[in-house]
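The authors assume throughout that readers already know how a fold can be written as discrete tokens. A single example would do more here than another paragraph of explanation. An entry of this sort, consisting of the sequence and the corresponding backbone structure tokens, reads as follows:
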Amino acid sequence: MTTLKILVTGANRGLGYHLTKMGLDKGHIVIAGVRNLDQADQLTQLKERFKDSLHLIKLDVTSEQNVIDISNQLKEKYGSLDVVINNAAVLLEREKFIDDLDIDQVLTSFEVNTIGPMRVIKYLLPLLYAGNNQSIINVSSEAGTILNAFPTNYAYSMSKTALNMFSERLREYLKNKGIQVYAIHPGWMKTDMGGEDAPFDPINTANGIYDIVEEKKKIYSKIAFIDTNGRPMPL
């Protein structure tokens, strides 16, 4: 199996942590991006085990300068990237209707959930061009579908819908460059965001994402928005 250089955003907890650990267990090099390194205890423990394969970085997807600096650091250290998994996200104003919605929180949601992945790809794309077996995975949500969205949840749902459109545009742009691009619905998972009532284990979701990244699954979808089994999601 080819060793991949993989960047994961929001890597310190939930799905991001499991994507990081699974990538390391599979023998890949993982660059784990976290907004606050003081909240990365689990990753610090992984670093003790995977000394040369895990690179911890402070990555704030809302900061243009931070992403530019990270791009320069990774270019100097690795020269290329093979996979970017945009996992960092926030869930704000979940239960509010339009009457009580805090528009600033909606803007923050778009800044993290939509513009953040766009910013990361904009500055890391040259590194992906230099990579091999390249993939861009934007972790999306069924909440971003028109048919299945909740009557509330404006900020999260709308930002994920926009992320799906970005993924589709990016997929079209890169289709002749050998870089696969998908927005993936991870399922309702037992994480800090999903809660304990969620039916899915993030380990299984991470495994499905790696099957796609490692091209172990044939994807027949004509759109970028898929589930972890590679099936197209409803729009």
